[in-house]
Amino acid sequence: MRVTDFLLWDPGDGLRYELVDGAPRAMAPANTTHALLQNELGRLIGNQLLHRGTRCEVLAIPGVIPHLLSAHNIRIPDLGVTCSPFIPGQPAMTDPILLVEILSPSNQAKTWSNVWAYTTIPSLQEILVLYTTRISTKILRRDQDGKWPNEPTERTLGDLELSSIDFRLPLVELYRRTGLPQAL
Question: Is pLDDT at 78 greater than 70 in this prediction?
Answer without folding.
Answer: yes
